[in-house]
Structures are given as structure tokens and as C-alpha cells.
Design a protein that fits this description.
The protein is built from seven helices and four strands; from the N terminus they run αααααββαββα. The chain has 165 residues and is an alpha+beta fold. The termini are far apart.
Length: 165
């Protein structure tokens, strides 16, 4: 059985922001029950299969997939700044490779003149290495929010005589 026009529209709208409630509203479903309807639609086999097929098409069309995202995060997370930046003058090394260069967020060069000559101020800002490591760690399941809590009771008694052992 094929999807209804509204179900197809829901899938198209869902692909915009991956928000089922908003996709329902934009697809013409009741705003009052959009959260419930969105959840139900995502649970329907036909809708889910169509959604996964559309996601696969988009991934193929754009060349963006999980492997590519993980590789990009790894570039940022594992860059060695000394391979990229000359520490003496904050310039970018001429022999920096593409992986290293992909880690640069911005470069600022400011030239100032004064009585003693020109002065160049450089700033090379890299993407957030810690954030990239955090995202990779989450992807690999290294950090878990499913921590186990253990309660250890501590009993304090007043007026307990000292032991003379």
C-alpha cells in the first residue's frame, strides 16, 4: 500500500529539520496532536521505509554520510598544531597537508605601522578540538549517560564513648 499525499509531505518536511512535530504541522496535520501523530507516523513501516529511502538518496546525492562526518571530526580531533602553525611567527606552515588545513576555523592578519616600522599580528584559530573529541567519543560509545548510582549510607552516632583499646 502506498503512502498518502500527506504522509509523503510529512516525510519531505521531516527531512528539513528531523523534527516530527513540526513536520506534521507543516504537512497539514492538527497542531494540537502533532507530537503524537509525528511519533505514530515514524512508527509506521511504510513511512519509515520511505523516510530511510529518502535519507539514503540525500546521502548519495550530497556525499555526506556517517563515515565522512566521522573522518572530518577525526581531522579536527587529532590534528597536531605544530604540523600546521609556525610557532615563531604564527604563520601557516607551507608544507601543511589538507587534513591539517581543514582544521583551521579562521586566520586573521593585521598589519600596523608605527615609527619603528611595520608590525604584523597573526591569529590562527583552529576548530574546537575538545568538542570534536567529545563527539567522536560519543559516537564510539565511550561516554555514557547510563551511569550507575550507588548509595552508601553513613551513620553518625552521637555520645558514643571512645574505645580504650
Amino acid at each position: 500500500m502506498a503512502l498518502t499525499e500527506r504522509q509523503k509531505r510529512f516525510v519531505d518536511e521531516y527531512l528539513i529539520d528531523l523534527n516530527a512535530t513540526q513536520a506534521c504541522i507543516r504537512a497539514g496535520y492538527s497542531a494540537k496532536n502533532a507530537d503524537k501523530i509525528g511519533s505514530q507516523l515514524l512508527g509506521k513501516t511504510r513511512v519509515s521505509e520511505h523516510l530511510h529511502a529518502e535519507l539514503a538518496k540525500r546521502s548519495k546525492r550530497t556525499g555526506i554520510n556517517q563515515d565522512r562526518v566521522v573522518k572530518e571530526l577525526a581531522r579536527i580531533a587529532l590534528v597536531n598544531p605544530k604540523n600546521l602553525i609556525n610557532a615563531k611567527d604564527a604563520s601557516i606552515n607551507k608544507d601543511a597537508n589538507d587534513d591539517d588545513l581543514a582544521c583551521i576555523q579562521s586566520v586573521k592578519v593585521k598589519t600596523m605601522s608605527n615609527d619603528s616600522g611595520d608590525m604584523v599580528e597573526r591569529e590562527v584559530k583552529l576548530h574546537d578540538k575538545l568538542k570534536a573529541l567529545e563527539l567522536l567519543g560519543k559516537h564510539l560509545g565511550m561516554w555514557s549517560d547510563n551511569s550507575v548510582s550507588v548509595t552508601v549510607p553513613i551513620v553518625i552516632k552521637d555520645n558514643v564513648p571512645d574505645s580504650d583499646d
